[in-house]
Amino acid sequence: MKRKAASFLLAVMLSVSLGAIIVTSLAMYRLLSERYTEEIRKIEASLSDRFAVFETMLDDEHKRITSDLEKVLPSIAQELEASGRPPGSLSSEEMTALAKRHGVQHVYFINRDHVVFQTNYPPDMNLVFPKGRFTEFLDSVFGANRVMNDGIDLSQVTGTLKTYSYLGPRDKDYIIEISTDVRGNLDSTGYGWMAKYFFDELLTDPVRSNPSVKELNIYLINQAGTWSLIHPGQKLDPALAERIVKNRREEISSGDGRYLTIYSAEPTALATKPDLPVTTKHVIRKITYDVGLARAAVFQVLLSSLLVLAILMPIVFWIASRQLQRQLLEPLFNLRGEAGAIAEGDLNQTIANTDRRDEIGQLALSFASMRDAVRKTITDLKETNLSIERFVPQAFLAIVGKSSIVDVELGDNKRKTMTILFSDIRNFTTLSEGMTPDENFAFINDYLEYAGPVVRDHNGFIDKYIGDAIMALFESADDAVRAGIALLGALDAFNAERRAAGQRPIAIGVGINTGTLMLGTIGEKHRMDGTVISDAVNLASRVESLTKTYGVKMLVSQYTVEALADPKAYDIRPIDVVVVKGKTHPVMISEVFQHDPAAERAAKAGTRDLLQSGAEALARRDLVCARRFFEESLAKLPGDMAASNLLQKCV
Question: What is the pTM for the complete model shown?
Answer without folding.
Answer: 0.44
